[in-house]
C-alpha cells in the first residue's frame, strides 16, 4: 500500500495531539510512516504505533538540539528518499511550515499550507493518478477552498484540531534512520532557550476548549475571571487583539488574523464583539458560545449559544457551577 510520511511533533518523547490527528488523516491516504527526531524521539514509538503508524523512523542526533529547522529538514529529506511516500504531512506550527516549505523546494514539489481537511485522491505515487484534495479556510474564513498539488509529491501542513484522534494499533517499533546532514554553516544555531512559564493549561492552538476574553473584560486583573473558567473546564485562555493591545494579556494568546488560529470543540468568547479579524482565528470551532452584554453584538451571528449579560456576573456563576458538580 502507498505510504504517507508524517513529521512528528513531540516534547521529549511526549507526542503532541496535532501529530495524532495527522495520523488519522494519513490513514485516509495510505499507510502512515512517522518520522520523529531529537531528544526522546525513540520514546514516541509506542504512542505512534497505537495511532496507526506502520513504521516509526527515529533519529536522536545532537544536532537537532543545536540548530533550527535544517537538521529536521535533512531528516525529512532522508526519510522521503528512503520511503518514497505519496504525500508528506507536517503539523502547521511555525517551524513545521518552514520545514515543509523547504522540503517542497528540495523535492521540486507543490506545497499546501494550513489544511483543515484532506480527502484521498486516486494516486499510488507512480505519477499517473491524482493526489489528495486539500481543504483550506481562506480570506479570514470567508471561503473554503479545495485544491490539489499537481507537481511532485504533495507536501501538506495541517492545522491543529482538523481531525479526530483515533486508535489503530500496528505494533510498529522504532527504526533508526540514517540521516544525511547538510553543512551546519547554513543553519541558524540555537544560542539560548527560554522555557515557557508553566501555567498548567493546555497549549492554545491545540486545546479542546478555549475561553477567550476581549475588551469587555475591562482590565488585566479582571482576566482572572477568564482564567478561573478556563481552569474549571481544563481549557486554554485566548484574548482578542483589543485585550492584547491594552496590555491585559500576552500576544502569544491572541486569537485571530494576526494571532493564532484555533479550532477547538468549544470556544467561549467573553466580552468580544466578533470583528472579522477575530473570527478569522476561531470560526472553525465546533461549538461557539458568546457572552456579551450587547444583544446586537456581531458575535451572536456566529455563536451556537449566546448569553446576553455582564461577563463579570455570568462567568463566575458558570465557574462556580462547574466547580461544584
Ligand atoms: P470590541 O470590539 O471593543 O468589543 C468589546 C465587546 O465587549 C463589545 O461587544 C461589548 O458589548 C462587550 N462588553 C463590554 N463590556 C462587557 C461586559 N462587562 N460583559 C460582556 N460583554 C461586554 N482582532 C483580534 O481579536 N485578533 C486579531 O488577530 C486581529 N487582527 C487584526 C488585524 C488587522 C489588520 C486589523 C485592522 C484588526 C485586527 N484585529 C484583530 C482587531 C479587530 O478589528 C477588533 O478591533 C478586535 O477584535 C476587537 O476586540 P474586542 O472584540 O475585544 O473589542
Uncertain runs are none
Radius of gyration: 21 Å
How much of the sequence is in beta strands? 15-25%
Let me know the average pLDDT: 93
SSE order and pairing:
Layout (H helix, E strand, L loop, with lengths): L2 E5 L2 E2 L2 E2 L1 H13 L1 E7 L7 H6 L4 E5 L10 H14 L3 E5 L2 H14 L3 E9 L13 E6 L4 E5 L7 E4 L15 E3 L32 E5 L9 H11 L2 E4 L1 H5 L20 E5 L5 H4 L7 E6 L6 H4 L2 E4 L2 H13 L2
Parallel strand pairs: 1-4, 1-6, 4-5, 5-11, 6-10, 7-10, 12-13, 12-14, 14-15, 15-16
Antiparallel strand pairs: 2-3, 7-8, 8-9
Flavin-adenine dinucleotide binds next to α6, α7, β15 and α9.
Subunit structure: Heterodimer of an alpha and a beta subunit.
Pfam family, one: ETF
Cofactor: FAD
Your description of this structure?
It is a single chain. This protein has 325 residues and is an alpha/beta fold. The protein has nine helices and 16 strands. The protein has a nine-stranded mixed β-sheet with strand order 9-8-7-10-6-1-4-5-11. A five-stranded parallel β-sheet has the order 13-12-14-15-16. Helix 3 crosses helix 4 and helix 5 packs parallel to helix 9. The longest helix has 14 residues. It is globular. The N and C termini lie far apart (49 Å). The model has no long low-confidence stretch (mean pLDDT 93). It binds flavin-adenine dinucleotide (FAD). Flavin-adenine dinucleotide binds next to helix 6, helix 7, strand 15 and helix 9. This is Electron transfer flavoprotein subunit alpha/FixB family protein. InterPro entries: DHS-like_NAD/FAD-binding_dom (IPR029035), ETF_a/b_N (IPR014730), ETF_a/FixB (IPR001308), ETF_asu_C (IPR014731), ETF_asu_C_CS (IPR018206), Rossmann-like_a/b/a_fold (IPR014729). Belongs to the ETF alpha-subunit/FixB family. Its cofactor is FAD.
Amino acid at each position: 500500500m502507498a505510504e504517507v510520511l508524517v513529521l512528528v511533533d513531540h516534547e521529549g518523547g511526549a507526542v503532541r495531539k496535532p501529530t495524532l490527528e495527522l495520523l488519522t488523516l494519513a490513514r485516509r491516504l495510505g499507510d502512515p510512516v512517522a518520522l520523529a527526531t531529537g531528544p526522546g524521539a525513540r520514546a514516541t514509538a509506542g504512542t505512534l504505533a497505537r495511532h496507526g503508524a506502520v513504521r516509526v523512523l527515529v533519529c536522536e542526533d545532537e544536532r537537532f538540539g543545536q540548530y533550527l529547522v535544517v537538521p529536521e529538514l535533512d531528516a525529512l529529506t532522508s526519510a522521503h528518499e528512503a520511503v518514497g511516500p505519496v504525500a508528506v504531512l507536517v503539523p502547521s506550527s511555525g517551524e513545521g511550515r518552514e520545514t515543509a516549505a523547504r522540503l517542497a523546494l528540495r523535492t521540486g514539489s507543490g506545497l499546501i499550507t494550513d489544511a483543515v481537511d484532506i480527502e484521498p485522491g486516486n494516486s499510488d505515487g507512480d505519477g499517473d493518478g491524482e493526489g489528495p484534495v486539500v481543504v483550506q479556510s481562506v480570506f479570514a474564513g470567508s471561503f473554503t477552498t479545495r485544491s490539489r498539488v499537481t507537481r511532485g509529491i504533495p507536501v501538506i501542513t495541517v492545522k491543529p484540531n482538523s481531525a479526530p484522534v483515533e486508535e489503530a494499533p500496528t505494533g510498529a517499533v522504532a527504526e533508526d534512520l540514517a540521516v544525511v546532514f547538510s553543512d551546519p554553516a547554513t543553519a541558524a544555531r540555537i544560542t539560548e532557550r527560554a522555557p515557557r512559564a508553566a501555567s498548567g493549561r493546555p497549549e492554545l492552538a491545540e486545546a479542546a476548549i478555549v475561553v477567550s476574553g476581549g475588551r469587555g473584560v475591562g482590565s488585566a486583573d479582571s482576566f482572572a475571571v477568564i482564567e478561573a473558567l478556563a481552569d474549571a473546564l481544563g481549557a486554554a485562555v485566548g484574548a482578542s487583539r483589543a485585550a492584547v493591545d491594552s496590555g491585559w494579556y500576552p500576544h502569544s494568546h491572541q486569537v485571530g488574523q494576526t494571532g493564532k488560529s484555533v479550532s477547538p470543540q468549544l470556544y467561549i468568547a467573553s466580552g468580544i464583539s466578533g470583528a472579522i479579524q477575530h473570527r478569522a482565528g476561531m470560526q472553525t470551532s465546533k461549538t461557539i458560545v458568546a457572552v456579551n452584554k450587547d444583544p446586537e453584538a456581531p458575535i451572536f451571528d456566529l455563536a451556537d449559544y449566546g448569553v446576553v449579560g455582564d461577563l463579570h456576573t455570568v462567568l463566575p456563576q458558570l465557574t462556580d457551577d462547574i466547580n461544584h458538580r
